[in-house]
Protein backbone atom coordinates (compact mmCIF):
# COMPACT_ATOMS: atom_id res chain seq x y z
CA UNK A 1 0.00 0.00 0.00
CA UNK A 2 2.97 2.34 0.58
CA UNK A 3 4.03 1.68 -2.99
CA UNK A 4 0.63 2.75 -4.27
CA UNK A 5 0.73 5.89 -2.14
CA UNK A 6 4.03 7.00 -3.62
CA UNK A 7 2.78 6.50 -7.14
CA UNK A 8 -0.47 8.24 -6.35
CA UNK A 9 1.50 11.27 -5.23
CA UNK A 10 3.44 11.08 -8.50
CA UNK A 11 0.19 10.92 -10.45
CA UNK A 12 -1.05 14.01 -8.65
CA UNK A 13 2.17 15.82 -9.50
CA UNK A 14 1.70 14.84 -13.15
CA UNK A 15 -1.77 16.37 -13.19
CA UNK A 16 -0.39 19.59 -11.71
CA UNK A 17 2.46 19.66 -14.23
CA UNK A 18 0.13 18.99 -17.15
CA UNK A 19 -2.22 21.76 -16.07
CA UNK A 20 0.68 24.19 -15.72
CA UNK A 21 2.05 23.32 -19.16
CA UNK A 22 -1.40 23.66 -20.70
CA UNK A 23 -1.83 27.06 -19.08
CA UNK A 24 1.55 28.24 -20.33
CA UNK A 25 1.04 26.96 -23.86
CA UNK A 26 -2.42 28.52 -24.06
CA UNK A 27 -1.25 31.91 -22.83
CA UNK A 28 -1.44 33.26 -26.36
CA UNK A 29 -5.19 33.42 -25.91
CA UNK A 30 -6.29 30.50 -28.12
CA UNK A 31 -9.73 29.22 -27.14
CA UNK A 32 -11.85 26.34 -28.33
CA UNK A 33 -15.57 25.73 -28.09
CA UNK A 34 -16.46 23.20 -25.39
CA UNK A 35 -20.12 22.62 -26.13
CA UNK A 36 -22.93 24.96 -25.18
CA UNK A 37 -21.15 25.92 -21.98
CA UNK A 38 -18.91 28.37 -23.82
CA UNK A 39 -15.22 28.50 -24.69
CA UNK A 40 -12.41 26.54 -23.06
CA UNK A 41 -9.59 28.94 -22.22
CA UNK A 42 -7.50 26.05 -20.83
CA UNK A 43 -7.04 24.31 -24.20
CA UNK A 44 -3.36 23.86 -25.09
CA UNK A 45 -2.01 26.00 -27.93
CA UNK A 46 0.01 23.09 -29.32
CA UNK A 47 -0.33 21.42 -32.74
CA UNK A 48 -3.49 19.35 -33.10
CA UNK A 49 -2.80 15.68 -32.35
CA UNK A 50 -4.76 12.58 -33.27
CA UNK A 51 -4.68 9.84 -30.63
CA UNK A 52 -6.32 6.40 -30.65
CA UNK A 53 -7.63 4.95 -27.38
CA UNK A 54 -8.13 1.21 -27.86
CA UNK A 55 -9.55 -0.94 -25.04
CA UNK A 56 -10.84 -4.46 -24.54
CA UNK A 57 -14.26 -3.29 -23.39
CA UNK A 58 -17.26 -5.42 -24.15
CA UNK A 59 -20.70 -3.99 -24.95
CA UNK A 60 -22.40 -2.07 -22.14
CA UNK A 61 -19.51 -2.15 -19.64
CA UNK A 62 -19.90 1.10 -17.71
CA UNK A 63 -16.37 0.85 -16.29
CA UNK A 64 -15.02 1.84 -19.68
CA UNK A 65 -17.35 4.82 -19.87
CA UNK A 66 -15.42 6.21 -16.89
CA UNK A 67 -12.04 5.48 -18.51
CA UNK A 68 -13.21 7.17 -21.70
CA UNK A 69 -14.54 10.18 -19.79
CA UNK A 70 -11.12 10.79 -18.24
CA UNK A 71 -9.44 10.40 -21.63
CA UNK A 72 -11.87 12.87 -23.21
CA UNK A 73 -11.15 15.51 -20.56
CA UNK A 74 -7.39 15.18 -21.14
CA UNK A 75 -7.92 15.25 -24.91
CA UNK A 76 -9.98 18.44 -24.74
CA UNK A 77 -7.35 20.15 -22.59
CA UNK A 78 -4.48 19.00 -24.80
CA UNK A 79 -5.99 19.87 -28.21
CA UNK A 80 -6.18 16.18 -29.09
CA UNK A 81 -8.63 14.51 -31.47
CA UNK A 82 -9.49 11.31 -29.59
CA UNK A 83 -10.52 8.24 -31.57
CA UNK A 84 -12.01 5.53 -29.36
CA UNK A 85 -12.52 1.88 -30.29
CA UNK A 86 -12.76 -1.39 -28.38
CA UNK A 87 -13.11 -5.13 -28.74
CA UNK A 88 -12.88 -7.83 -26.04
CA UNK A 89 -11.40 -10.31 -28.54
CA UNK A 90 -7.60 -10.14 -28.50
CA UNK A 91 -7.12 -10.62 -32.23
CA UNK A 92 -9.79 -8.04 -33.02
CA UNK A 93 -8.20 -5.55 -30.61
CA UNK A 94 -4.84 -6.14 -32.30
CA UNK A 95 -6.49 -5.30 -35.63
CA UNK A 96 -7.73 -2.03 -34.15
CA UNK A 97 -4.12 -1.18 -33.26
CA UNK A 98 -3.09 -1.92 -36.84
CA UNK A 99 -5.89 0.32 -38.11
CA UNK A 100 -4.55 3.16 -35.95
CA UNK A 101 -1.05 2.59 -37.34
CA UNK A 102 -2.39 2.70 -40.90
CA UNK A 103 -4.21 5.94 -40.07
CA UNK A 104 -0.85 7.44 -38.97
CA UNK A 105 -2.14 8.63 -35.61
CA UNK A 106 0.16 10.67 -33.40
CA UNK A 107 -0.20 8.36 -30.42
CA UNK A 108 -1.92 5.19 -29.18
CA UNK A 109 -3.20 4.36 -25.70
CA UNK A 110 -4.09 0.68 -25.42
CA UNK A 111 -4.97 -2.00 -22.86
CA UNK A 112 -3.20 -5.36 -22.77
CA UNK A 113 -5.68 -7.79 -21.24
CA UNK A 114 -4.70 -10.30 -23.96
CA UNK A 115 -1.02 -9.40 -24.27
CA UNK A 116 0.05 -12.26 -26.54
CA UNK A 117 -2.45 -11.16 -29.17
CA UNK A 118 -1.99 -7.40 -28.96
CA UNK A 119 1.71 -6.85 -28.20
CA UNK A 120 3.04 -7.66 -31.71
CA UNK A 121 1.02 -4.80 -33.19
CA UNK A 122 1.94 -2.47 -30.33
CA UNK A 123 5.58 -3.12 -31.20
CA UNK A 124 4.77 -2.31 -34.83
CA UNK A 125 3.37 1.03 -33.72
CA UNK A 126 6.50 1.84 -31.73
CA UNK A 127 8.70 0.78 -34.67
CA UNK A 128 6.68 3.15 -36.88
CA UNK A 129 7.53 6.03 -34.56
CA UNK A 130 4.13 6.21 -32.88
CA UNK A 131 4.42 6.65 -29.09
CA UNK A 132 2.27 4.24 -27.08
CA UNK A 133 0.97 4.26 -23.51
CA UNK A 134 -0.49 1.19 -21.83
CA UNK A 135 -3.36 1.42 -19.38
CA UNK A 136 -5.41 -0.87 -17.15
CA UNK A 137 -3.99 -4.24 -18.21
CA UNK A 138 -0.56 -5.62 -19.07
CA UNK A 139 1.55 -4.67 -16.06
CA UNK A 140 3.83 -7.70 -16.43
CA UNK A 141 4.50 -7.18 -20.12
CA UNK A 142 4.20 -3.47 -20.93
CA UNK A 143 7.93 -2.73 -20.76
CA UNK A 144 8.65 -5.22 -23.54
CA UNK A 145 6.54 -3.19 -25.97
CA UNK A 146 8.64 -0.02 -25.87
CA UNK A 147 5.69 1.97 -24.50
CA UNK A 148 6.46 5.29 -22.79
CA UNK A 149 4.33 4.59 -19.71
CA UNK A 150 1.83 2.38 -17.89
CA UNK A 151 -1.18 3.60 -15.89
CA UNK A 152 -3.21 1.19 -13.79
CA UNK A 153 -3.03 -0.94 -10.69
CA UNK A 154 -0.91 -3.98 -9.92
CA UNK A 155 -3.68 -6.56 -10.08
CA UNK A 156 -1.85 -9.22 -8.08
CA UNK A 157 -1.17 -6.70 -5.28
CA UNK A 158 -4.78 -5.52 -5.47
CA UNK A 159 -5.92 -9.12 -5.11
CA UNK A 160 -3.62 -9.68 -2.16
CA UNK A 161 -4.92 -6.54 -0.46
CA UNK A 162 -8.44 -7.81 -1.05
CA UNK A 163 -7.51 -11.16 0.47
CA UNK A 164 -6.22 -9.36 3.55
CA UNK A 165 -9.46 -7.38 3.73
CA UNK A 166 -11.52 -10.56 3.47
CA UNK A 167 -9.52 -12.19 6.27
CA UNK A 168 -10.22 -9.17 8.47
CA UNK A 169 -13.92 -9.55 7.67
CA UNK A 170 -13.80 -13.21 8.70
CA UNK A 171 -14.24 -14.79 5.25
CA UNK A 172 -13.71 -18.56 5.13
CA UNK A 173 -14.60 -19.58 1.56
CA UNK A 174 -14.58 -17.14 -1.36
CA UNK A 175 -16.00 -17.43 -4.87
CA UNK A 176 -14.04 -15.20 -7.26
CA UNK A 177 -16.07 -14.39 -10.37
CA UNK A 178 -14.12 -13.99 -13.62
CA UNK A 179 -16.34 -12.30 -16.18
CA UNK A 180 -13.93 -12.51 -19.14
CA UNK A 181 -12.01 -15.75 -19.66
CA UNK A 182 -8.37 -15.32 -20.62
CA UNK A 183 -8.09 -11.80 -19.19
CA UNK A 184 -4.74 -11.85 -17.38
CA UNK A 185 -5.69 -8.94 -15.12
CA UNK A 186 -8.79 -10.68 -13.78
CA UNK A 187 -6.90 -13.92 -13.24
CA UNK A 188 -4.21 -12.01 -11.32
CA UNK A 189 -6.84 -10.51 -8.99
CA UNK A 190 -8.23 -13.92 -8.09
CA UNK A 191 -4.73 -15.34 -7.65
CA UNK A 192 -3.85 -12.46 -5.34
CA UNK A 193 -6.87 -13.21 -3.17
CA UNK A 194 -5.84 -16.86 -3.08
CA UNK A 195 -2.32 -15.85 -2.02
CA UNK A 196 -3.78 -14.50 1.21
CA UNK A 197 -6.86 -16.67 1.66
CA UNK A 198 -6.39 -20.23 0.42
CA UNK A 199 -10.06 -21.19 0.16
CA UNK A 200 -10.84 -19.44 -3.14
CA UNK A 201 -12.71 -20.94 -6.09
CA UNK A 202 -12.81 -19.21 -9.47
CA UNK A 203 -16.11 -19.22 -11.35
CA UNK A 204 -16.13 -18.15 -15.00
CA UNK A 205 -19.14 -16.32 -16.42
CA UNK A 206 -19.93 -14.37 -19.57
CA UNK A 207 -19.90 -10.78 -18.36
CA UNK A 208 -21.88 -9.56 -21.35
CA UNK A 209 -24.82 -11.85 -20.52
CA UNK A 210 -26.24 -10.79 -17.16
CA UNK A 211 -29.15 -13.28 -17.05
CA UNK A 212 -26.78 -16.19 -17.68
CA UNK A 213 -24.34 -14.81 -15.11
CA UNK A 214 -27.10 -14.56 -12.52
CA UNK A 215 -28.24 -18.11 -13.23
CA UNK A 216 -24.67 -19.46 -12.92
CA UNK A 217 -24.04 -17.71 -9.63
CA UNK A 218 -27.43 -18.66 -8.20
CA UNK A 219 -26.79 -22.32 -9.01
CA UNK A 220 -23.28 -22.18 -7.54
CA UNK A 221 -24.47 -20.62 -4.28
CA UNK A 222 -27.30 -23.14 -3.96
CA UNK A 223 -24.76 -25.96 -4.29
CA UNK A 224 -21.96 -24.50 -2.18
CA UNK A 225 -23.31 -23.65 1.25
CA UNK A 226 -19.78 -23.11 2.60
CA UNK A 227 -19.21 -20.06 0.40
CA UNK A 228 -19.56 -17.02 2.66
CA UNK A 229 -18.21 -14.35 0.24
CA UNK A 230 -18.54 -13.68 -3.46
CA UNK A 231 -15.98 -11.29 -4.95
CA UNK A 232 -16.90 -9.86 -8.32
CA UNK A 233 -14.29 -8.20 -10.50
CA UNK A 234 -16.47 -5.38 -11.75
CA UNK A 235 -19.37 -3.41 -10.36
CA UNK A 236 -22.05 -4.75 -12.68
CA UNK A 237 -21.25 -8.37 -11.88
CA UNK A 238 -21.25 -7.57 -8.16
CA UNK A 239 -24.79 -6.19 -8.33
CA UNK A 240 -25.84 -9.30 -10.24
CA UNK A 241 -24.22 -11.41 -7.50
CA UNK A 242 -26.34 -9.61 -4.89
CA UNK A 243 -29.49 -10.77 -6.69
CA UNK A 244 -28.10 -14.27 -7.19
CA UNK A 245 -27.36 -14.66 -3.48
CA UNK A 246 -30.94 -13.66 -2.63
CA UNK A 247 -32.35 -16.06 -5.22
CA UNK A 248 -30.18 -18.88 -3.84
CA UNK A 249 -31.19 -18.20 -0.23
CA UNK A 250 -27.47 -17.80 0.50
CA UNK A 251 -26.04 -15.78 3.36
CA UNK A 252 -22.89 -15.08 1.30
CA UNK A 253 -21.78 -11.46 1.37
CA UNK A 254 -20.59 -9.56 -1.69
CA UNK A 255 -17.35 -7.68 -2.30
CA UNK A 256 -16.38 -6.02 -5.55
CA UNK A 257 -13.71 -4.42 -7.64
CA UNK A 258 -14.44 -1.06 -9.27
CA UNK A 259 -16.89 1.73 -8.61
CA UNK A 260 -20.00 3.16 -10.26
CA UNK A 261 -22.98 5.26 -9.24
CA UNK A 262 -24.93 2.09 -8.46
CA UNK A 263 -22.01 0.53 -6.60
CA UNK A 264 -21.66 3.60 -4.38
CA UNK A 265 -25.31 3.22 -3.37
CA UNK A 266 -24.82 -0.51 -2.70
CA UNK A 267 -21.79 0.13 -0.49
CA UNK A 268 -23.63 2.87 1.39
CA UNK A 269 -26.66 0.69 2.14
CA UNK A 270 -24.52 -2.36 2.99
CA UNK A 271 -25.68 -4.52 0.08
CA UNK A 272 -22.02 -4.74 -0.99
CA UNK A 273 -19.40 -4.76 1.75
CA UNK A 274 -16.60 -3.01 -0.12
CA UNK A 275 -15.33 -1.99 -3.54
CA UNK A 276 -11.71 -1.91 -4.68
CA UNK A 277 -11.25 1.28 -6.68
CA UNK A 278 -8.50 1.52 -9.31
CA UNK A 279 -9.56 5.03 -10.43
CA UNK A 280 -10.36 4.34 -14.10
CA UNK A 281 -10.98 8.04 -14.83
CA UNK A 282 -7.38 8.71 -13.83
CA UNK A 283 -6.13 5.86 -16.00
CA UNK A 284 -7.82 7.31 -19.09
CA UNK A 285 -6.72 10.85 -18.29
CA UNK A 286 -3.08 10.00 -17.67
CA UNK A 287 -2.77 7.67 -20.67
CA UNK A 288 -3.75 10.51 -23.03
CA UNK A 289 -2.03 13.32 -21.15
CA UNK A 290 1.22 11.33 -21.06
CA UNK A 291 1.20 11.09 -24.86
CA UNK A 292 0.71 14.85 -25.14
CA UNK A 293 3.55 15.50 -22.67
CA UNK A 294 5.81 13.13 -24.58
CA UNK A 295 5.03 14.65 -27.97
CA UNK A 296 5.23 18.29 -26.85
CA UNK A 297 7.97 18.20 -24.23
CA UNK A 298 9.69 14.81 -24.39
CA UNK A 299 8.42 13.94 -20.91
CA UNK A 300 7.89 10.45 -19.54
CA UNK A 301 6.09 9.53 -16.33
CA UNK A 302 7.01 6.93 -13.72
CA UNK A 303 10.78 6.79 -14.05
CA UNK A 304 10.57 3.64 -16.15
CA UNK A 305 8.13 2.00 -13.75
CA UNK A 306 4.34 1.72 -13.77
CA UNK A 307 2.32 4.60 -12.37
CA UNK A 308 -0.16 2.90 -10.03
CA UNK A 309 -3.69 4.30 -9.71
CA UNK A 310 -4.92 1.80 -7.11
CA UNK A 311 -5.97 -0.13 -5.15
CA UNK A 312 -8.05 1.96 -2.76
CA UNK A 313 -10.81 0.42 -0.64
CA UNK A 314 -14.23 2.06 -0.55
CA UNK A 315 -16.58 0.97 2.25
CA UNK A 316 -19.03 2.53 4.66
CA UNK A 317 -16.23 4.36 6.44
CA UNK A 318 -15.36 6.54 3.44
CA UNK A 319 -18.18 6.22 0.91
CA UNK A 320 -19.47 9.72 1.71
CA UNK A 321 -16.23 11.21 0.38
CA UNK A 322 -16.50 9.30 -2.92
CA UNK A 323 -20.26 9.20 -3.53
CA UNK A 324 -20.55 12.57 -5.29
CA UNK A 325 -17.81 11.65 -7.78
CA UNK A 326 -19.46 8.31 -8.51
CA UNK A 327 -22.75 10.14 -9.09
CA UNK A 328 -20.98 12.39 -11.60
CA UNK A 329 -19.66 9.35 -13.45
CA UNK A 330 -15.98 9.98 -12.71
CA UNK A 331 -15.36 7.27 -10.07
From TrEMBL:
Main subcellular localisation: other
CDD domains on file: PBP1_ABC_sugar_binding-like
Pfam families (alphabetical): Peripla_BP_4
Signal peptide: 1-22
GO MF entries: carbohydrate binding
Sequence similarity: Belongs to the bacterial solute-binding protein 2 family.
Keywords: Signal, Sugar transport, Transport
Subcellular location: Cell envelope
Name this protein carries in UniProt: Simple sugar transport system substrate-binding protein
Lineage summary: Bacteria, Bacillati, Actinomycetota, Actinomycetes, Propionibacteriales
Record keyword Transport present: yes
Coiled coil: none
Amino acid sequence: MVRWHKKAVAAGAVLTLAAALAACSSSGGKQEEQGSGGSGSGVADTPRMKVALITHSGPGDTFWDIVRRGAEVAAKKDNVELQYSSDPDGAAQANLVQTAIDAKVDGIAVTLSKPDAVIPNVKKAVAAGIPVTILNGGLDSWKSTGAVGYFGQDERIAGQATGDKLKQLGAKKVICVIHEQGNVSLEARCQGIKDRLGAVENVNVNGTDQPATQATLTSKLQQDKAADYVVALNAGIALTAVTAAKDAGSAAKIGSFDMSKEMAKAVKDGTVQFAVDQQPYLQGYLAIDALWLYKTNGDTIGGGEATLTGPAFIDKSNIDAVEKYAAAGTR
